[in-house]
Amino acid sequence: MFFLSKFLSALTQPIFWLALWWALSLLIMKHRRVSAVVMLWLGLLILGLLGFQAIPDALLRPLENRYPTPNEEDIERHTGIIVLGGALQHPDSYTFHGQVPLGEAAERMTVPIALIRQHPHLQLVFSGGEGRLLATGVTESALARTFFNQQGLPMSKLRLEAGSRTTRENAQRVAALLGEDCNKPWLLVTSAWHMPRSMAEFETVGCSVTAYPVDFRTGERTPLSEYSLANSLLRWQTGLHEWFGLLMYSLTR
Fold first, then answer.
1. Which has more pLDDT, 250 or 3?
2. Which of 39, 44, 185, 214 could be disulfide-bonded to 107 (CB atoms 3.0-4.6 Å)?
3. Through-space distance between the first and last CA atoms of the chain, rounded to whole angstroms
4. 35-43 CB contacts, 8 Å cutoff, 24+ apart
5. In angstroms, rounded to a whole number, what is the distance separating the alpha carbons of residues 157 and 4?
C-alpha cells in the first residue's frame, strides 16, 4: 500500500498527464506537424483552465463536509486525541535550524494543543513515521515530540507511534499501541479532506473514534473569479489523490 500511494501521487497530478501529452505531441511533430501543434496548444489551454480554483474545490468540498466538528460537550466525554501525521515538512530545515517545520496542514498540530488546554483530561497520541521513499532517519513522531514539548505540552500526556507510513498503517499501529484503550472514545484529528478515509480505517481496526476535522481548504462556495494556477494544481492533486485513495482502500479493505 505504501508504494501504491506513492504511485498514485504521480498519477493524480494533472501536470504529469500534461507532460505526457506534450511529450506525445513532440514525438509526432515530424510526421504530423499540424496535429502536434494543435495538441501543444490544447495542452496549454487545459493548463490555463486548471487554474480556476472552483473546480478542484468541488472535488474537495464533499470530503470536507462529511463530518461535523464536535461541540464542547461531546469533546468532554472523550479519553484523548489521535493526531495523524502529514503536517510536518522535510526535517532538513529542523536539523539545520532547530525549528520544527509546519506545512499547509499545520492545524493538525496546533488544534490539539488548544483542545488539551481547554480539556486538560485529554491524552494525546501522535501517529507518524517517515513516509518518504528516501528515508532521512527522522520520523514525524520525533519532530512532533519536539514541537509539542516546545509548546509546553506535558510529555506525560503524549504517546508516539513512529512506524506508520500510510493512513492504513496509522490505524493498524495506533490500534496495536492502545490495545484495549482503543475501545474508549477518542477524537481523531486530521485534515477534513482526509477524514473519510481515516475514519473508515480506524473503524475497521475496531477503534472508537469521533471525527474532529481540521485544515479545511474550502468554504461554502468558491467564486469563479478565484484563479491561481499553482494553488489550484495542489488542490487538484489533493482531491484526486483522496478520491482514488478512497476507492483503492475500499477495494483492498
1. 250
2. 214
3. 11
4. 43/18
5. 34
CB 129 within 8 A of CB 163: yes
* Measured torsion, CA atoms of residues 133, 168, 151, 69, in degrees rounded to the nearest 10: 140
CA angle, residues 189, 193, 198, in degrees to nearest 5: 50
Neighbours of 113 (CB within 10 A): 16
Mean pLDDT of the chain: 93
Dihedral over Cα of 123, 176, 128, 68: its sign = negative
Residue in 198, 230, 227 with CA at minimum distance from that of residue 211:
198
Task: Supply the pLDDT for residue 192.
Answer: 98
Cell numbers describing residue 189: 484529528
Distance of alpha carbon 91 from alpha carbon 85, whole angstroms = 13
Specify the pLDDT at position 2: 57
Q: Under a CB-based contact definition with an 8 Å cutoff, are residues 153 and 187 in contact?
A: no
The candidate with the shortest Cα–Cα distance to 239, out of 222, 253, 223, is 222
DSSP string, 99-112: -PPB-TTTHHHHHH
Q: Which of 146, 191, 198 lies closest to 168 in space, CA to CA? A: 198
Residue type, 49: L
Mind listing the domains of the chain with CATH numbers? 12-62+227-252 (no CATH), 68-214 (3.40.50.620)
- Compute the distance between CA of residue 219 and CA of residue 209 in angstroms, rounded to an integer: 25
Q: How far is CA 80 from the centre of its chain?
A: 21
How many angstroms separate the CA atoms of 70 and 115, rounded? 11
